[in-house]
Structure prediction request, 1054 residues.
Amino acid sequence: MNVGKNITRMDAAEKAAGRTKYTDDLCDKSALIIKIKHSTIAHGRVISMDTKEAEKIPGVIKVVTCFDVPKNYFPTAGHPWSTEESHQDVCDRLLLSEHVCYYGDDVAAVVAETEIAAVQAVRAIQVEYEEYPFVLDVQEAMKPEAPCIHEKYPGNILAHTNIRNGNYQKAIKEPGLIKVEGWYDTPSVQHCHIENFICFAEEKEGKIVVTSSTQIPHIVRRIVGQALGIDWGKVRIIKPYIGGGFGNKQDALYEPLCAYLSTQVGGRLVKLDVSREETFVNNRTRHAIRSHIITYLRKDGTIVANKLEAFSNQGAYASHGHAIVAKGMGCFPQLYPCPNIEADAYTIFTNRPVAGAMRGYGIPQAMFAVESHTDDIAKAVGMEPVEFRRKNLMPVGFVDGFSKNENYYDTFNQCMNKGMEYIDYDRKKKKYANQTGNIRRGVGLAVFWYNTAVYPIALESSSCRMVLNQDGTLQLQLGETEIGQGADTAFAQMAADAIGVPFESVHMVSCQDTDVTPFGTGAYASRQTYVASFSIQKTAEAFKKRILEHAHEYTGMPVSNLNLVDGNIVRTSDNRVLMSMKELAMEALYSRNHSEHITAEETADIKSNAYSFGCTVAEVEVDIALCKAKLLNIINVHDCGRLINPALAKAQVEGGMSMGIGYALSEQLIFDEKTGRALNNNLLDYKLSTFMDHPHLEVQFAENPEPTSPFGTKALGEPPVCSVAPAIRNAVLDATGVAVNQLPLNPHNLFKRFYEEGLL
Amino acid sequence: MYDMKALYEAGSVAEAIELLQEHPQAQIIAGGSDVLVQMREGKRAGAELVSIYGLDELRGVTLEADGTIRIGSLTSFSHITKDPIIQKYINVLGEAVDMVGGPQIRNIGTIGGNTCNGVTSADSASTLFAWDAIVELTGPDGVRRISIKDFYIKAGVVDLKPAEIQTAILIPKKSYEGYQGHYIKYAMRNAMDIATTGCSVNVRLSDDKKIIEDVRIAYGVAGPIPMRAPAAEKMGNGKVVSREVIEDFSKAVLEDLHARTSWRATKEFREHLAVELAKRALTESVHLAGGEIA
Prediction:
């Protein structure tokens, strides 16, 4: 068996040796260079553009302005397309914007022979704007006097949905209830994957071919087709290895513009390499979400009624839109079930950079609000926060009416127990109870809710192809993408077991090329190991059946008495090896009597989903006078079902924890109130945490096999980031008695709160 | 790709001066960790560069006959930190420059570049201010030496005359003999960051370790250029070491600082930090000098 083993990832040696080719390595040096002219206003309209000086610069081939591009409005979100119009993504983008919606919006593009000429030309373009008022904050944007950013969306409301369970208004009238109310605010942050977005495009063999650092090649093919108004079959997207995505590359970013610009220079090869500064502003960010929660409970800690209002800052364009805050709201009635709930989620356009998908997809924001609030509630009723959770968390056997997800195991308690044991929670909780002085320590815990993939909200399918080689090995292809997480290795492990061959016999075709790769929607929603397991299992069964049918020809044994074990054809009645896969494959392909190219290709249409739960426990030391919270110890515990590759699973969790630590303590994009410009869109001023800011990252698992999937697996990609920030916030609360409800818990926010609470 | 008109590499200090005279618009480049970043941002697009990076004569730390510590301007941060003369006499400077950026920057970045860049946040600068460092400048008219306080004119502007290059930083014996110092870099993360505020203190105690004979304190990012806090120094000098004196000294720094609110930090937070860091840096300096705080 290969599943469950720490098999070295198949791309490790090449990556460690520096031989792996990423998008920029693959681009021919003859490529023309694209640079984009960005707006210097946050909201308005381009009146005119003077490109004469830019065009005179030696090496400049073409200047394209917002007035030149086709008026094909297209969506960018990396969602599966919906054939129902009402479920389709909002088509609000053009290749370049005449109507400027944020500071830095794309108004023109230059194609030049060198990067320097392109940069000089961008600088030489003169733009005349008509300026409109702009708005950056959600609450401000909802006011009647706020500027309306998109005509179709009065009040700047992209969407508003709600949940009504029971009767909240009636329930809160019960005498003697304790009311706990809080506002919880999260900032705009960015993914900061190491490889900035990059793509190159050319016209070849009657198609437009785009090589792109993307998570979602098949979706990008559709969007490029939509944006250029051409047949989707004329678009070919190639996805090589990529240096991280974390959701930013779950959007069509600049592939449509790059493809279009190639068509404007005679189909020549053009490259668009985004700078780090542009990555912060012109790609996607995490939605800043402000949540207002009111809870009514009895003195014994029973929750009677719950109210949530969540306001999600969409930024300038719809991108993934309301899906993010809706996911966050969706978990609200499930995590701490309560009979009377009123929940409202709003997604609001502002003139900030566009928010899209980012690891956790609304859940890190929701967990910061809900799990901070949970500690506030526990404090208000005088209960130990973990005891409060044990009493009120989703019980074993809980089934969600919509997704039909079921909480099969006592996962929450298992995870909390492991985390608390590692941190020595109970002893430290007592030890830190009555601290005075400048240095104080505290422990905090937060759980998270997550689910796997997007069923039943959207399409969930996965396709797989297996091709037998002459030597008895196979090539394996999937639409699901390797984006640094180790997906290829996990796929190959599952395929080896499903077919009955050694791991080494599975040759993964890592690169997706939409001309040849089976259809798949790509890396997002922590879906791939789950959904691919279905298509791998199904394809392996078909593949194996063909092989065994051939084996019947050579061995005379009925298929029912044959099996494939470790790369051999075995007679099941006595486990005798009858022939090897290599012998079979050579014969099958080269036989003069019956030659057959043995392949299998299947699509699994997935109609299930799975909960994925866990927790973070953190210990901090706060230097009150320095307004600094130092993370001393931290552990994440996950139940992601059966571990396909424990070492890769652990690495995935460590990465997510690191991201969560930055979210908790240091990261935020800051905008100039006067202009709307991002002030810190670089890695010096945007405080991504470093190795020096991390303690040891402890990772443990509660391994409960998921009943719905072939290998017992479920989501792990995004969950690790979801509970880190509230656990750290709760630890700071434990240490100082101060609730900090605004992320990040950086010195600026701690200074403000410690000052307000009289600690300074 | 850098938008660079020309690069001239000097083989000696004299040649560097000649090249700068021939190309008066040229920008001097040493390690490049500031200049190349500025060029990438488009601030020096199309620049001519005169590289002095190959001038090994400007590298290294030496002790002159009169006890002056001479730090060649091209000495990298990592070499300063590991230098035995620095470690023996002014270890705090080695500690301060060990907080610049990350290891790669500390290997390429030079103390000359750090000071000639003229920014208030330079990790070397506040410590050099606190040690009354002398800047040696070599130009067509020969060598001149000025105090670091006079070298900094305003944000981003230092007293480099046409065709002049900085050749050394000097710490006179009287500045360091008998002193112990401590630098605190306050930043938002523990590596790869610039200081929100940097505070460098050094102190000379009486033989019985009970009296502060001389205390010096300098800040980075408390004004447009690095600066001393003379009122606090005056207040501390001659006092008996005590918790109260340290408190009073720390509060007195605000008399000289000009903190302001920017998106990087509010005035209130900067002032709070200035006082807190003064307290901690003086306390640590007194400990290093063998004093006990009553």
